[in-house]
Amino acid sequence: MHGSRRNNVVESFFSTGGSSGGNNNSSSSDDDALLREVRERANGIYDFLVYSRRFLHQHPELMYKEEITSAYVQKVLGDLDIQFTTGWGKNTKQNRISGSGGYGIVADIGTGGPPCVLLRADMDALPILERTEGVNEFKSQNDGKMHACGHDGHTTMLLGAANLLKSMENSINGTVRLMFQPAEEGGAGGKRMREEGVLTMDPVVKHAFGLHLWPTIPSGSVASRSGALLAAFEQFEILVSGVGGHAAMPHQTIDPIVAASTIVMNLQTIISRNLSPLESGVCSVTKFEAGDAYNVIPHSALLRGTIRALSTETLLSLKDRVLHVVETTAAMHGCNVTIEWAPDFYPPTVNDPLLFESFSKYVGGMVAQDSKLTNIEPTMGAEDFAFLAEHVPSTFFLLGQGSGKSPDSSFGLHHPHFAIDESVLPQGVELHVNVALRALRKLADDEN
């Protein structure tokens, strides 16, 4: 689809204004007309959405290495006559994380002037061996890499939104900025793009919105909450060093495996004994690596894991406590220890209360007729959309995809059997487009 003609439905939507002005009945009628228009158009590109999602799923790429993914996004935007810039999300931590980065893409649709709202999608995959043999014919072609967190769907839905928004461009009052982001899975790609100016370049972004496919929520539903929705998180790597030797003569060694095992157990007391029962926190050790032979006590043992909390203050408190437990436990066993943290800890993803309130009554109907937003408790998953929400009022949504229509669509995130219910792809497009247009209208109303 090339170019844009004026769209009477969109123009009427902007001209009537929201609850702060205009006739309420007229405004409601225009809202309904826009919902119908967007739904029809989103369903009309279903084949494109499925093709895009499956292509991206077959070509998963790890953080800061999203070359094929970025090239595909650029091709689609180019075919739509959408101007974009590349080179976003450069890896400034190459001493800690491999890959040069720079595969992020930013595109503006609309007048090119204020007000401006941002829609964001992440593009990177995970180092997981996909296990969907016999279930889908478009499984990963890159062994050991998999889109197990839905980022192929997220990128596809934002491309679909680009299609619809471009077709309405001449009727949009303001600018919708599209942010295709690399390195969400621990690489802080959102922070890199924020530092590079994705929020502050002209026109300055006033609000940011994002979504995540969520398998524990029924398809056709949207969930979120005011305040903290997703956790702050930090990663750690602990190297315990002792003195190796023969397994038959442990008294001649300083056993790092025993020391590391004690560290694992002692870390479990932090949440139960150092954190208020009224607060939420997680401390999980996810890797324990030591030794190569059954009869050799190794020189060292390696632990990796994560801590999470619903506030930055609690996360930093947990971090201090982890350091103390690790150092004192290692010393008790006569071992040396080093602990390294990830280059960037993620803050919690916090939905702006006022912005969330202004959208909460409408969002459900944006993806399914008569549907309502489900208010949920926070989850200890983390998202680097948080780096945007730290700087501009933002809202993040969880889009249900747990229908079971796809054989593996109810498996959890990061599971080797995880699959997307592709029937929800148009719903994500609808959510993006409706949220962006409603936010632009609200900003215009607030200025009048």
UniProtKB/TrEMBL annotation:
Cofactor: Mn(2+)
Cofactor note: The Mn(2+) ion enhances activity.
Region (Disordered): 1-31
Residues in Peptidase M20 dimerisation domain copies: 236-330
Binding positions for Mn(2+) per the UniProt entry: C149, H151, E185, H212, H414
Listed InterPro entries: Amidohydrolase, Bact_exopeptidase_dim_dom, Peptidase_M20, Peptidase_M20_dimer
One Gene Ontology term of the molecular function aspect: metal ion binding
Entry keywords, A to Z: Hydrolase, Manganese, Metal-binding
Bias (Polar residues) ranges: 1-16
Record family assignment: Belongs to the peptidase M20 family.
Protein name per Swiss-Prot or TrEMBL: Auxin conjugate hydrolase
Species this protein is from: Fragilariopsis cylindrus CCMP1102
